Amino acid sequence: MDLGSVQSEPEAAPEWATVPPVLTAPTCHATGCTERPLVQWQRRLTPMELAAEQAIEQARRDQAFADRDIELPPPGFGPMPGPQDYVHAVLACGPHAIDMDAAARVHQATCTGPDSANLPLCDCDPEPLPAPAPQAEQKLPAHWAAAVAGGAG
């Protein structure tokens, strides 16, 4: 029997074996720009984005509550995250980048950056930078301080 001459129809792949789509690299957020990003800054979420994030968080909490061990106390979640707890990453290529000082700050949800009309700035008033953490003065051990002051070596 010649098995080489038998042609059979290929079997369809099972549903679990299908390959997910290939992820593409992120691009600049400027309208119509497809360049790869070089810089990133953050902005607050719009009301619609915030509602979507809070719905995801609520679904996570609901699932955790449904999956809980009923012989143990119910899980505690704390308050629902608010607008101050979320930021959205904004990406831009070199020509569409805002300046470095502005990129270090969190921008308003309504910020239109990167917008060529406003570059290298944006059209919002970003949040102020957080105050630097106080640094406690640290003293060298006495045997180190003497060596540094005397230039021993």
Number of strands: 3
Q: On the 0-100 scale, what is the average pLDDT? A: 84
Spatial shape? extended
The percent of residues in helical segments reads: 10-25%
Number of helices: 3
**Amount of beta strand:** 5-15%
What does the main sheet amount to? Answer: 3 strands, mixed
Biggest sheet strand order reads: 2-1-3
**Separation, N- and C-terminal Cα atoms:** 90 Å
Which stretches of 5+ consecutive residues score pLDDT under 50? Answer: none
Rg calculated over all Cα atoms: 28 Å
Structural class: alpha+beta
How do the SSEs run, as a string of H and E? EHEHEH
Can you characterise this structure?
It is a single chain. The protein is of the alpha+beta class. Among the domains are: 23-44 and 88-125, no CATH class; 48-72 and 79-86, no CATH class. The protein is 22% helix and 8% strand. It has 3 helices and 3 strands. It has a 3-stranded mixed β-sheet, with no helix packed on it. The longest helix is centred in the middle third of the chain and has 20 residues, at 47-66.
Summarize this, please?
By secondary structure, the protein is an alpha+beta fold.
Task: Break the fold down into its secondary structure elements and pairings.
Layout: E1 39-43, H1 47-66, E2 88-92, H2 100-103, E3 106-107, H3 142-150
Parallel strand pairs: 1-3
Antiparallel strand pairs: 1-2
Which labels suit this protein?
153 residues; alpha+beta; 3 helices
